[in-house]
Amino acid sequence: MIDYIVPLLLLVICCMALSKKENAYDLLLSGGADGLKLVVSILPTLVLLLTAVTMLRQSGAVEVFSSFFAPIFQFFGIPPETAILVLIRPISGSAALAVGTELMATYGVDSPIGRTAAVMLGSTETTFYTISVYFGAAGIKKTRYTLPAALIADFVGFFMAALTSRIFYA
User: Fold this and answer.
1) Over the stretch 105-114, which tens digit does the pLDDT of each residue have?
2) Do 131 and 147 contact (CB within 8 A), yes or no?
């Protein structure tokens, strides 16, 4: 069934264009061109973010931050082992997924840490990536209150992930 979604979607688009007496091919080409313009406009931001995340992980700075913030996370009931996930998740989804996979491989998927990591991955956002991509695409330079509000929402998400994991999987 999934193999037929894209051809079916193209067929529906063509039928809609024909019913309105519009050139479906030109419409698809202009949509593709707009998509490429968007990719070109956000590509520098994506390259910068991915480079920064790789540099932080390879330099060992993430581990230093994790050990520094571990007592604070423990105070809020967040397992200290997930500190690296809490620090990486707002920056990069793929790096966070790698960290989550690493945590689950180390502690087990059914362990409190593995379950907490899984819930954290599903209940938080890649804040810096999302803000840079969407604000960059819209041409917005000043994020004003967006970043602090989004980081607070991320922290609440991490805290609630740890809390619900303890409540439901204890």
Assistant:
1) 999 999 999 9
2) yes
